[in-house]
Amino acid sequence: MSIRSKLLNINAKRAVFVLCLVSALCIPGYVSAQYHRNDCLSSFYLDTPNDTAHSKFRMVKEAVYRSDDSLMHNSKVTETTLKLFNKAGQKQLAVTTGPNGKPTDSTVYEYNNANDEVREEDWESDDSDVLIRSTYEIWVYDSAENEIKDSEYIQYDLNDAYFRESLSKYDTSGNEIESREFKERNGEMDTDIYWRRYNENNREVYVKEKSMGNYSQTYYAYNAKGQKVFSADTYGEFLHGKNIDSSWSTFAYNNKGVLSEENDYKKGKLCSTYTLRYGAHKEEIETSEDISTADPYSCSNNVVKVKVTDSTGKELSEVITREKDGKPIVTTIIHKYTFGETYIDSTFIVEQGFMYKEKWKEITTRVTDTHGNTLLFMMETGTSSGREAKDTWRYNDLNKAVYHAYYGSCKSSVPETETFSSYYPDGKSIKETIELSVGGYRGYFFYDIYGRMEKKKSSSKDSETGKMEYYVTYYEYK
Fold this sequence. Notes:
- The protein is mainly beta.
- The protein contains three helices and 30 strands.
- The longest helix is centred in the N-terminal third of the chain and has 14 residues, at 12-25.
- The chain is extended.
């Protein structure tokens, strides 16, 4: 029996257990008492900025209702999702039911004592509303918690399935020294194998790969500080002694430990270079060059870039020289800055070639208040398109945003989207958020004092009928 056949031979007891558990959890108002008694489901902390020890829950239920009426008269449930968590905050079960109350999909998660995920199964309903396992993945770990096996199966349809299995070996330091990946889809198989070696400092010095019948090898060398100073790749059909190709790179560093020089070679030809040096005012001057050779598949076309950056990391200038139709084209970019509560980056671009010259500018403006909060962010160009984008904000006394507007169209005085936020009396915990857009979308989000979503309301226009649709989602925590 093949590996795939063995994995397809589903354990009957497990399948029955999962289906029974899913069915029980999908009954409105019913939660399996057996699951609640499980110590693994004692608590879960919601990961939000307002999270406190009081926001514990082990279950969350989301119910979505739809109506053609803004007051939600005659609303009908469209789907309900139930999620269970363990004490580490890991999801153990997620079940979604449709309007008829029957499950449409379900995912089961399992973990070991170290909280590593060891199994994940996805179930989807067929045309007869019967849950069928569509995908699953299994992980196996050794005593040192290294992943030694990863098996995945996906059933796309009755005649299309995919299986993958990865196996790994490690040395005593936990470095992966061998990995094999087997893949099969509809009878077509493929295998990738990697072998790795490390030096006494656990840095990778050698990798050999076998894929699609071809081999490749990579070598690395380091200096006394552990910085990579050399890498080389050889690849081709080594078994037959032909189609062998090679490339290598050398690296050098300055006394700050920053890469200051790199040279890349392909088939023995220098293809690209990079250098970093410092100017009189400690500005960084980076020069990179791509060098073309007679072999068009080895190196890129001739391109030279020289970029100057000040000591704070702001780009001052960049000059790019490239070829087009055998003639050089030079693009010069100059930045000029205005600092303070109003920060302006004025960028001037000149592109010049044979009987050709074009100039334009781009201006980025950022206005902040005395607390450092951004009040205005705007990007403009000197072209006919005018303003590219603009954002504005307002804040409360505790520097929490209460309003944000985004203007995406050129020179528009009407925002495309607006967001309003209100807070609880402490001024920090968000209570309600309203999102509006010119396309008709309306979104209302309500939170409890611990930052947990309580209710979500939204409305939008149906693109086909042109009618408004209204939705409300309720969240319940236990």
